[in-house]
Design a protein that fits this description.
This protein has 253 residues and is an alpha+beta fold. The chain is built from 8 helices and 7 strands. Helix 2 crosses helix 5 and helix 6 crosses helix 8. The chain is globular and about 60 Å long. One of its GO terms (cellular component) is cytoskeleton.
């Protein structure tokens, strides 16, 4: 990974490492074509600090985000540093709610690509008959669309919809995924995106799909969880994607 940008003295090593990983994550989302111009958001909980996390400065393109210009906020979206930028208020209700309620979730990514949004429009939601769809079995919650996510009163309903799962389909909108760290969250997002792409393509082909028994889908999901329970697996995937991105685009800092 890029190491040409020096760590400022006022930021400790743990926070700096998190900032570098999160900035790379924003660039990866752009690299894969999953951005929504300046909208959407990725948050990461600060290590060893209660109720503080890093988010993107609202108004910047994902490719303009660096470890230094990420902003620090609390779970209510209040800015905790002297950055000239503000966060996107539409992200605070969603991200703040999840970070407050779920100790097992340290990173949350929200996207609405064409494929994911198409699946979110369908009553059936995600199917589990493809290789990637099967990996999502038992991991998806669904939340009814209430408009742009701006208001605190929706927090409890979003959390109820999410339950103990790691993927929240925002009906008629998009998704939010969350995992223990940035690497695992990105891998989960990639899996969800691939499942949506294949489901949309399969639907466009017409004809009957070959259904998988629930027992097989469940087994597939459990096997995937066993793989990523060791952070080394997700880290290998994540760092490989960063290398691929930088080999094609060059380092961002």
């Amino acid at each position: 990974m890029s190491k040409t940008l020096s760590r400022p003295s006022h930021i400790n090593e743990e926070e700096w490492e998190l900032r570098v990983k999160l900035a790379h994550c924003y660039h990866l989302i752009d690299f894969f074509g999953w951005t929504e111009t300046i909208f959407n958001h990725i948050s990461a909980r600060l290590p060893n600090v209660e109720g503080e996390y890093l988010v993107n400065p609202f108004g910047l393109n994902y490719t303009e985000i660096t470890p230094l210009n990420l902003i620090k906020v609390d779970v209510n979206g209040n800015k905790l540093d002297d950055s000239p930028y503000d966060g996107n208020p539409a992200g605070f209700a969603l991200h703040g709610a999840i970070h407050t309620a779920r100790e097992d979730v340290h990173c949350v990514i929200h996207t609405h690509t064409n494929e994911v949004s198409a699946v979110a429009m369908k009553k059936i939601g995600f199917t589990h008959d493809s290789f990637y769809g099967a990996q999502l079995y038992g991991r998806v919650g669904y939340h009814t669309f209430e408009g742009i996510t701006l208001y605190d009163d929706e927090r409890s309903r979003m959390l109820e919809s999410l339950g103990n799962k790691h993927i929240l389909v925002l009906r008629n909108h998009g998704i939010a995924v969350g995992e223990f760290d940035i690497e695992r969250t990105f891998f989960l997002l990639w899996t969800v995106q691939r499942a949506a792409e294949i489901q949309v393509t399969s639907g466009a082909l017409g004809g009957e799909d070959v259904p998988l028994p629930e027992t097989i889908s469940q087994k597939c999901a459990e096997q995937t969880q066993m793989l990523i329970s060791n952070s080394g697996f997700a880290n290998k995937f994540y760092t490989a994607m960063v290398r691929k991105m930088e080999s094609e685009r060059g380092a961002y800092w």
